[in-house]
Amino acid sequence: MNRSLRTHEVGVDHERVDGWAKVTGTGPYAYEQPVSQPSYLHPVQSTVARGRVTEVDARAATALSGVLTVLTPFNAPRLQHGHDAELEVLQSDEVWFRGQIVAAVVAETPEVARQAADLVRVQYRTSPHDVILSVDRDDLYKPESVNPNHPTDSLAGDPDAAFDDAARAVEATYTTAMTHNNPLEPHTTVAVWHGDDATATLTVYDSTQGVHTIGEAIATMFGLTPDRVRVVAPYVGGGFGSKGRPHPHEILTVLAAQRLKGRPVKFAVTRQQMFSFVGYRTPTIQRMRLAADVDGRLTGISNDIVELTARYKEFAEQTGIPTRTMYAATNRRTTHRLAALDVPVPSWMRAPGECPGMFAPEVAMDELAEACGVDPIELRIRNEPETDPDTGKPYSSRNFVACLREGARRFGWADRPPLARSRRDGDWWVGTGVAGSTYPVLRRPGASAASVRYDGDGRYVVSIGAADLGTGAWTALTQIAADALTVPFSDIDMRIGDTGLPPATVAGGSSGTTNWGSAIVAAARRFREKYGDDPDAGDEYTAAATDDGHTERFAMHAYGAQFAEVLVNVDTGEIRVPRLLGVFAIGRVINPRTARSQLVGGMTMGLSMALHEKSVLDERFGFVVNHDLAEYHIPTCADVPSVEAHWITEHDPYVNPMGSKGIGEIGIVGTAAAIANAVHHATGVRVREVPITNDAVL
Ligand code: MOS
């Protein structure tokens, strides 16, 4: 067992330590970092989806007053090759997707850069492109592994035989849409080179979920030792995974600054450009089979998944993971197959894998409940596993059933009519639905370190290169540090977001608090062991968390139960969601205020997946046509009148010293299925595709 943290500040709903700076505009985001004599970059994007650049005519652009340079595939400085094809910006004439960066202008002002970029004439030799995802393609292939390193397929027993012998069965295809991360703050990078070539060092202000991740990528691509690259990101306006990995804009900005020798370069990616080169969620096609006895006890479960990737780089979303682990069934199969298309490479978007991968099974379970005449909550309880079906390991804690029961009580599930299409209120069909949520506890002990320094006068400086992308991590870490040092919250000066601080893992996979908090607790304990409770000013200790072996021994997951009430207009099919309610089992909650915000935000994004978000890929041209917030729909406040997030009391002594599980992503998992199930309950129409549009229910 971890020596658990004694809590005084953990559990208190402290205001965000960065809240004041953010809302008053005094906390500098990457683009606002003051640098001397900045220049501004604007990219030129490919207007064809496949082919080669044959000529770039920059004469009109360079003639414009204020233009400093035009970078092209033919004149850009060379990068290291073979590490990451996505980052090899302007290194070849090859066009892999429409919207790819094929040139860039740097100018004295952003306006001149943009105008000049419009004047750059690019000639292409065009090849036919192919962007159509379909299960019928004969070139679907099996990737080596799925994100981040899971086995591609899984098989236990004989799920097809179980299906053939089943007393009750469900077989259907479910699809989820291509969607794009749209954090409030678009991606921005500011690059400053210092000194001349041989000994030059680099400072990068970046909107990122991981300064060390970005710093290492830049160092690799430019052939620098990591100590020559400093990445700074104290304030970040959201990311949802799109800022968790490096993308071409960061490399391009550094490349431009290298070219300009000493002149800092700023690049603010526009909202429209975000639809081309910072990642998105792959669409998925999931062929799901459930086999059960007459009482709804699963005997088999399988999910055969088809999704897309890019030709120039592979990203294989781990959509089958929830089917592997959520419910007990002797016979189980998952497969992932990919189509490599002429599109940008997909990447992480809030709960990659679990989010699309819980839509199909959780709607299928609703269908099975109907087929068996069993309440959907009772059906799930009947299929609760003793140990993790995927690994056979015992759970560190599993309180899914508690979430279902607590949610049913709070939501008022008992009053629900069992049959679909049985409640009408004026012009509206009324229905309710439920679905499960799950998200793993991802741990990398030893990969993050923290330092504790006593500054005198009761002040402790605690440092770690973590990122707060708007989650509240900065505040939660301050609370953890206070308890680890047994001092009040106000005595801690928490420093994050700089590669000059001890190394930290990326703010991804809902793992930040686990990994960084464990490092802070380790460092604080060593500090106290060495210096006691009465240290001298300047005393300092840096440490990483050690591996307690619990990852090997236990299956560790957070769980949740999501409930939705929907209204469906009898004439127009318009769908409204007057009420969402989630109950989660997420270990100890470090800060109820910021935790609730994470869960409510996730659920709202799940509603968005259910009813609004879809990137419309025009097959003729190979690009997303609704590439701005006017046409890419996300919910407004009027779309989400009531979203309630609750959690049960859960003690898990194995996950980390705080007893906390990740909360950034679980809120979006299962929400869309709960809404789809409620739509069925309202109307009797089973929709297996999100987003659900009006025509689907008429
Ligand atoms: Mo999250 S998609 O792992 O940043």
Describe the structure.
It is a single chain. With about 700 residues, the protein is of the alpha+beta class. The protein has three domains: about 35-130 and about 180-275, 2-Layer Sandwich (Aldehyde Oxidoreductase, domain 4); about 395-445 and about 550-698, 2-Layer Sandwich (Aldehyde Oxidoreductase, domain 4), CATH 3.30.365.10; about 445-545, Aldehyde oxidase/xanthine dehydrogenase, molybdopterin binding domain (Aldehyde Oxidoreductase, domain 4), CATH 3.30.365. It is built from 17 helices and 29 strands. The strands form seven sheets. It has a seven-stranded mixed sheet, sandwiched between helices. A hairpin with a 4-residue loop joins strand 26 and strand 27 (about 625). Helix 9 (about 355-370) runs parallel beside helix 16, helix 12 (about 475-485) runs parallel beside helix 13 and helix 15 (about 590-610) crosses helix 16 (about 670-685). The protein is globular and about 75 Å long. The N and C termini lie far apart (about 55 Å). Dioxothiomolybdenum(VI) ion binds near residues 240, 241, 244, 509 and 665.
